[in-house]
Write a structure and sequence with these properties.
This protein has about 60 residues and is mainly alpha-helical. Helices cover about 85% and strands about 0% of the residues. It has 2 helices and no strands.
Length: about 60
């Protein structure tokens, strides 16, 4: 999911440089939403692993 966020971020940068403001805004919005979903899933995963007593690096 992080790779999708990075992809939309790159699309937003390219669209912004080329002057496509609407596309850049939409792509950056999608990238931001995906990034926060990724962070939420990461935190949930770390909490669940901590409650189970597993090492998160494994």
């Amino acid at each position: 999911m992080l790779s999708w966020a990075i992809l939309f971020f790159i699309i937003a940068i390219i669209a912004g440089v080329l002057g496509f403001g609407g596309i850049a805004g939409a792509a950056s919005g999608i990238a931001q939403i995906l990034f926060f979903i990724f962070l939420a899933l990461l935190v949930i995963s770390l909490v669940v692993n901590a409650l189970r007593g597993k090492d998160p690096s494994v």
